[in-house]
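In the design runs reported in the main text, the only information available to the sequence generator was the tokenized backbone. The following block is the verbatim input for one such run; it is reproduced so that readers can re-run the procedure and compare outputs position by position.
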């Protein structure tokens, strides 16, 4: 698989937006700029694996990717909050 420099930039921007939105939705679990980008990218991976299997298809294009990544990042943040809360 070949990803161009432009593709990497788009992934980072979508990850940033999704991570920031997820941090606002799930309050108290922000990880800073780099952490939010990583959570957004991780959320995008989670959402791309999970949502199609559940039959959830929202929007088209970049908007769909941001919405899916945000949903995945929220799920990821909730899991992190559960794991941190048990300590």
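Verbatim output:
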């Amino acid at each position: 698989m070949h990803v161009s420099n432009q593709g990497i930039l788009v992934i980072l921007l979508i990850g940033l937006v999704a991570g920031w939105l997820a941090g606002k939705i799930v309050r108290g679990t922000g990880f800073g700029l780099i952490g939010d980008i990583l959570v957004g990218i991780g959320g995008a991976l989670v959402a791309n694996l999970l949502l199609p299997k559940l039959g959830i298809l929202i929007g088209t294009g970049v908007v769909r990717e941001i919405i899916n990544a945000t949903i995945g990042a929220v799920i990821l943040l909730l899991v992190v909050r559960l794991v941190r809360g048990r300590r």
